[in-house]
Specification:
The structure is a homodimer of 295-residue chains. Chain A is an alpha/beta fold and 295 residues long. Chain A contains ten helices and eleven strands.
Chain lengths: 295, 295
């Protein structure tokens, strides 16, 4: 039987760290605030918004929602970003995407101030992940990628020197988590839809991170008994009538060392990471006034 | 006996492409120009400068050298960058590094205009490599990383689906070449000083790119008879009284399918890539006036 790497305890530990920092900030008269920018009323966005608000509340972070009309113009949208950028009381920005097709999304995300880009939406933040120097510069990694790393850290799983295999190469999770594992001295292999002999490659991994978004595509042929699996997939499972991961949990559960469940694994940690990023952004700001030109 | 992947023919093909583009640009009244910025008179810088000048001449690209005093101030240095940025006749900037310790190198390189950053010195360019969208945005990859890719392309070596192992994780070559191989659909593994079982991992590679900078550290234990080796290492070999690569060439020559020699491999392609980048930068500029805010 594998060790089940539950996310709730990891989230709780992160929340405790965040709460302590929030108390310190409040003593200095600062209340960390996340500004959520939502265009339209998409169901997924509203669900994410409710979840994020709740997570912020838990640790004492304020949330302000800028609910914008579906037909907002590019100019107006850019003005909103610029206003939040210069709002001293706003420490983090979460912009729901994709934006309506009428907007130049890439331009808009590029305008988010790097020090408030708490979910690594723009290039300034991504380059921090790629160079491994993001932390030093007050840049934030994508929340889901950091959630995966926090789980490994919490459960004290050795990364240095180990073979890590990442399934998926998206900018939101695959590539960033690969770089973060590399920073922790793992030997990292990135697999994707064009990979040949995927089963063999996966079966040799000490740590397997799956972020393909393909229901039950990892099974007993991809694993070994010493393997730790971090399942980042969130897929609709019609058979179960609920959410399942990329990994066929029941099929591998007795053949691996440890595994995150879905739901209840990585997903449960992501919004705690977001809250932690907002708090860190507020904290960084109290320590120095970043000169945007310096970045 | 392995196929020897010589760089000279690759450089020649690249130069021919560049020359044709230069002729087209000249017909429009544009002469591509590289501005080399050198601080002090370091022997390596001067040698590189001579080589670069020669490569530019070969394809009809002008070179202007800004030779600056060792004791130049930060302000003066920033002014030079800003002048070259706004000089309409300058299409590429090559800044020799490391700069003297008295200067804030990171700040200075961050000021180089992305569209003139022909050797991928700053973060704007690196993020293009990381996202795989650098080409679309007129960003340039590090010249040595592209040189390695050009060799694979010239010799028609299949990359898609193949296992590529990159030794080294520097921002100049290891990480960028890993991302470029991934863009070409290789399954990429990044190894480094902390990697365990390096020999076994390497011996399973279809393509092995070594960029460790460690003399003869790759030998017959790291290879297989179907393997293609790109040796990016440039190391002083006292025994030979000259330059050798990371790979013990004589030791593996009969055990692999193909290999780049050192010297005469990747090194011979790099400055042709640089010239090609300057030409492309000039060409891009004639096609559209990039709006810096858009990047």
């Amino acid at each position: 039987m594998a060790i089940i790497l539950k996310g709730d305890v990891v989230a709780q530990a992160l929340n405790e760290e965040s709460s302590t920092l929030v108390d310190e900030l409040k003593n200095k008269g600062i209340i960390p605030k996340l500004v959520i920018i939502r265009v339209g009323e998409k169901k997924e966005d509203l669900a994410y918004e409710r979840g994020a608000k709740k997570s912020m509340e838990k640790v004492g972070v304020l949330t302000e929602v800028k609910a914008l009309p579906e037909d907002i113009s590019q100019d107006e949208m850019e003005k909103v970003i610029s206003e939040v950028n210069s709002d001293e009381s706003a420490h983090g920005i979460l912009l729901f995407r994709p934006l309506p097709k009428t907007l130049d999304e890439e331009k808009i995300i590029s305008l988010i101030a790097p020090e408030k880009d708490v979910d690594c939406a723009n290039g300034n933040s991504l380059v921090g992940v790629f160079t491994g120097k993001g932390g030093e510069k007050g840049c934030f990694a994508p929340c889901t990628a950091r959630a995966a790393m926090e789980i490994l850290k919490y459960y004290d799983i050795k990364i240095s020197g180990k073979k890590a295999v990442v399934l998926g190469r998206s900018l939101v999770i695959g590539k960033p988590v690969a770089m973060m594992l590399l920073d922790e001295n793992a030997t990292v292999t990135i697999c994707h839809s064009k990979t040949e002999n995927m089963e063999k490659i996966c079966s040799e991994a000490d740590i397997l991170v799956s972020a393909m978004g393909r229901l039950k595509s990892v099974n007993e042929n991809h694993v070994n008994t010493n393997q730790v699996i971090i399942d980042v997939g969130i897929n609709w499972d019609a058979e179960k009538g609920g959410i399942s991961g990329d990994v066929d949990f029941n099929n591998v559960e007795n053949s691996v060392k440890a595994i995150t469940p879905v739901p209840g694994g990585v997903g449960g940690v992501t919004s705690s990471v977001l809250a932690n990023h907002v708090v860190k952004a507020a904290q960084t700001k109290t320590n120095f006034k970043p000169n945007r030109e310096d970045r």
